[in-house]
Amino acid sequence: MFAAEFEPAEFANRRRAPRAALALDTDMARGGLDRALCRVTDISVQGARLQTYTELRRGLKIWLRLPKVGDVAARVVWAKDFAAGCHFDTPLAREDFEYLAPLT
């Protein structure tokens, strides 16, 4: 089976910040102190797209662990099956984004 992601040009033009494709295995905390594995598949200074092994729901607050940066607070803005998009409470510093962007 072949799977591909498609984003129409009109959506790409509405992005607030450039995104970088990524394949970063990490973890996140949800609610209490429980941590769950996830993969960051793209990132910007404003947020990230995740693949998860547990379903998330819109509005959930998470703490995403990023190399060099540490735990970043974020809010899930969309979730479908085992994928989710999150918006960081505080945007990443430009140098942190530039460090993470080439981690493929």
TrEMBL record:
Highest taxon of the lineage: Bacteria
Gene Ontology molecular functions: cyclic-di-GMP binding
Name of one Pfam family that matches: PilZ
SUPFAM superfamilies for this protein: PilZ domain-like
Domain spans labelled PilZ: 13-99
InterPro entries reported in the protein's UniProt record: PilZ_domain
Name of the featured protein: PilZ domain-containing protein
